[in-house]
Amino acid sequence: MNIESISLLNFRNHKNLNVNFSPKLNFIYGNNAKGKTNILEAIYYFATTKSFRTSKDQLSISTWADTAVVQIVLKKSFGSLDLKMIIDKSHKKTFYLNDEKLNNPSKILGVLHAVLFSPDEMKITKGSPEDRRDFIDNSISELSSTYYTLLLRYEKVLFSKNLLLKKRASLEEIDVFDLQLAELASKIIKQRVAFIDKIAPLANQYMKYLTDEKENLTLKYSSNLETFIAPGAILEKLKNFRLKDLELGYTSIGPHRDDLEIISNDKDLRSFGSQGQQRTAILALKLAVCDVFFQTTGDPPILLLDDVFSELDTKRIQLLFSTTNKYQTIITGTRFRSKLAQFNKIKL
Ligand SMILES: Nc1ncnc2c1ncn2[C@@H]1O[C@H](COP(=O)(O)OP(=O)(O)OP(=O)(O)O)[C@@H](O)[C@H]1O
Ligand SMILES: [Mg+2]
């Protein structure tokens, strides 16, 4: 798939902007605060229903307006689709597909697949286990709404169980919740491990490619439940931890406490990576996710690279763009570089 054009009306700093994209490489450039990232934000809304900058949709509406409208013409193998999002100050956001109003924002999911790299994504290596779980969960959720629902159910049951723990409820009362948690946890871990197994070899290939074979990348899902993936075994573990959890007032084991190990040349990048190494590793991860999206849906996703140049040397940048050819790529930067001659240039 590829985006043919986007129009932004009162979205962030854009009063009325129309941009046409090439199906291959696109470079949006201009000075700071020109609204480059805002364009990527608008596109990514259609992939996730959410902004990657804020949880308050209202902030995306231009300060001088009451309504923001984003329209995209998306080319798919079978033809073009018109996508529209309206964010209203008084109402929630609404999505439209070929002018048909969707009764729930989640209905837009699966129409436009995009993979985003932004400076904020550095949290995948620099941040907390939660940031890494979010990376895994958001990636799987883009492909499977069932997984997203599964996560929500798990969080709900976990929340209720933790309330009981805080109240120091009886073990019998907690039993009911542990039974459900074990079932849900088993499914979540299984899908996360399967996803990591899919992206790991690809991410390793990309890492080696981007570093001229100098650095490799190993990913390992690390669960506090170790290999106890079957619901029965998880339940046993949960029971073993009950007394401790009653003391703590929360559930100390389960997929909500898991992490992803990111290792390059035997060093844990979470603690030891240089800025450039971490950035390269995250790019390798994101490219691997693109490939998995492509394999799973049969349609190449769109790659959004915000401010990717800083901290990458020229060699890595050159290698990066020689690999992104198979995807429509939209990147942003502050100044034009002659290396990007093959790009469709969009000056803001
Ligand atoms: N709701 C809004 N209404 C009007 N302007 C807004 C709104 N939200 C953000 N902006 C403005 O948009 C501009 C930032 O846009 P953006 O972050 O896309 O810039 P950029 O071109 O990516 O800059 P940089 O090169 O620094 O990354 C800021 O000037 C900000 O004040
Ligand atoms: Mg920016």
Structure description:
The protein is an alpha/beta fold. It has two domains: 1-113 and 299-348, P-loop containing nucleotide triphosphate hydrolases (Rossmann fold), CATH 3.40.50; 127-297, Up-down Bundle (Glutathione S-transferase Yfyf (Class Pi), Chain A, domain 2), CATH 1.20.1050.90. 43% of the residues lie in helices and 23% in strands. The protein contains ten helices and 14 strands. It has helices spanning 36-48, 123-126, 129-143, 145-166, 171-210, 231-240, 242-248, 269-272, 275-297, 314-323; strands spanning 2-11, 14-20, 25-29, 67-76, 79-88, 94-97, 100-101, 114-117, 218-222, 259-264, 267-268, 302-305, 328-333, 344-347. The chain binds adenosine-5'-triphosphate (ATP) and magnesium ion. The site of magnesium ion has 5 residues, from helix 1.
Keywords:
binds magnesium ion, Rossmann fold, five-stranded parallel sheet, 43% helix, binds adenosine-5'-triphosphate, globular, Glutathione S-transferase Yfyf (Class Pi), Chain A, domain 2, six-stranded antiparallel sheet, alpha/beta, 14 strands, 2 domains, 23% strand, 348 residues
